[in-house]
Specification:
alpha+beta; 6 helices; 19 strands; globular
């Protein structure tokens, strides 16, 4: 059912799936990407649904490629796959599909909802497709728009997440207001990056009870589409310490769009320059707010490949 791409071990899970854990999965080359391309492209003749597991700084993803295949994804199936006990688990599921002559990506949250943007997942998909084709840049179509992605060298992938949305109705908020200083305790800032963000600037990010603050703000009536929540500690004008509560997911180790949002908010408030390093629980991202958009640079990791069994898929749909 699975083909090993590098030497490693199989973790057999007959009730759900089988996952190949590579010993050096970060060292895949173009030939190996081509070798597993057929294995992950949708359902095989035995009814299995192939996938890859990836992460960017611990922000973890299931990647499903349905190019030239029937798209099987539904809210129920995405939610079942996202269950960390009964499925595989993920922060987002990235579904690669054809849209005319371009490659498009849909982002599913672990609660079965869709999101227009996911920066780290975009970088992961861009890495796969650039490895597959040998290109050093690619454009991916998302709900956020067409995003430019580049190989930044040294194992890093860079993506232009587009211009931030700063008007209240673009983010969106429930009513007109100053998006830099919201009428909430702590006077957080709101920023849109294809999804809504609420950033609290605090003295000590580690001291904030994020598991309490996060769901409270996510569901606040001020945000009709719910919101991502960040607590931000300014270290200096080029460094931010950030912890993230992700909409539809919960407390996560990293978030690309959140990192872009806090960098924009910090620059708007005059706290930092427009190029910063964001230090997340899972590692560091470089963010630069340029004239053509907010660029994000960071690493990716291919962890495993596998296939969901027909039994799992039948119960999940």
């Amino acid at each position: 059912m699975l083909r090993g791409m590098v030497k490693g071990q199989f973790d057999q899970r007959p009730d759900n799936c089988a996952v190949f854990i590579g010993a050096h999965v970060g060292l895949l080359v173009k030939a190996e990407i081509s070798a597993y391309r057929g294995d992950m492209s949708g359902n095989d003749q035995n009814g299995h649904l192939s996938f890859l597991k990836m992460h960017g700084l611990g922000n973890d993803f299931v990647v499903v490629d349905v190019r030239q295949r029937v798209d099987p994804m539904t809210p129920a199936l995405a939610k079942a796959i996202g269950d960390r006990h009964f499925g595989i688990g993920f922060d987002q599921l990235a579904l690669i599909r054809d849209e005319g002559n371009v490659v498009a990506v849909d982002y599913w949250n672990a609660d079965g909802s869709l999101s227009d943007a996911c920066g780290n997942a975009t970088r992961c998909v861009a890495r796969l497709l650039m490895d597959e084709t040998g290109a050093t840049s690619i454009v991916l179509r998302t709900g956020r728009g067409d995003l430019e992605c580049e190989d930044a060298g040294n194992g890093l992938i860079r993506v232009n997440m587009g211009q931030p949305q700063l008007a209240w109705h673009e983010i969106p908020l429930a009513r007109e207001m100053d998006t830099l200083l919201l009428p909430l305790e702590g006077a957080p800032s709101a920023t849109g990056m294809g999804n809504p963000h609420c950033s609290f600037f605090v003295e000590d990010a580690a001291a904030v009870e994020l598991d309490t603050l996060g769901p409270q703000i996510e569901q606040d009536p001020l945000f009709p589409e719910r919101t991502n929540v960040q607590v931000v500690q300014v270290i200096d004008r080029e460094n931010l310490r950030v912890r993230v509560w992700e909409r539809g997911v919960g407390h996560t180790l990293a978030s690309g769009s959140s990192s872009c949002a806090v960098a924009v908010a910090a620059a708007r408030r005059g706290l930092t320059e427009r190029a910063v390093t964001v230090h997340l629980d899972g590692g560091d991202l470089g963010i630069e707010w340029r004239e053509d958009g907010v660029w994000m640079t960071g690493p990716t990791m291919l962890v495993a490949s596998g296939a969901f069994s027909p039994e799992f898929l039948d119960t999940a749909r």
